[in-house]
Write a structure and sequence with these properties.
This protein is of the alpha+beta class and about 150 residues long. The chain has a domain of about 100 residues: 3-Layer(aba) Sandwich (Aminopeptidase). It is built from 3 helices and 7 strands, in the order E-H-E-E-E-H-E-H-E-E. The radius of gyration is 14 Å and the shape is globular.
Length: about 150
Amino acid sequence: MLEIIVKKFEDLNTRELYAILKLRNEVFVVEQNCVYQDLDGKDDKALHVIGLKENKIIAYTRIFRPNDYAKMASIGRVVVKRNQRKYGYGKVLLKDSIRAVEAYFNETTIHVSAQLYLERFYEELGFAQIGDSYLEDGIPHIGMIRKSNT
């Protein structure tokens, strides 16, 4: 069972912040062999959606209000620990991230910069591709938008 909590940057304790950065590094830098500047100076503007299993952080996203990262509200740094992906936690995490954007920001249009191979995953959650694919840190991505009437 995945427990989801949402925290402001200033409410994260040092252990939580360390675990989040470690998870992002494990997946984005080591597993995906992508050298990039993860600490981009935007974490303090985000709300942090944290997935806990047995009190350990195994899934994470950060969400932004419009104009804090992109023109629209957005979800980014979507990550699930490698050995936990088989349980469907990615969908749980994204559904809760979408609800958090709607609840905290009162926004129903959400942007993601999705890795191209995850296009179907995002489509199943109501996102649709906008524009052409592009390289971001050497990995093919597409912009995707989700509009909700709720």
